[in-house]
Design goal:
Helix content is about 65%, strand content about 0%. By secondary structure, the protein is an all-alpha fold. This is Anti-sigma factor RshA.
Amino acid sequence: MSDDMELDCTAVLADVWLMLDGECDDATRERLQHHMDHCSPCIEAYGLEEKLKRLLSTKCGGDRAPESLRERLTLEIRKSVVITDSRIENP
């Protein structure tokens, strides 16, 4: 696996909404951006998600969903996405 593909695409796409909402820390944003800079399928998916977010914001008048809804959705997304890590780390 190359350095550019260090993150699994499913992990990147699972966190893309956090990045779009500015809700991830700098290190996470940097890792996600680095992956997308070198992975055309992920950058394409990110572009679609970004357009969807803009459309929802425009049509919903910028209203924020309740925090409890965001937490439930995040939990459901994480449960539905299988993230695998095949790296072996030396102790």
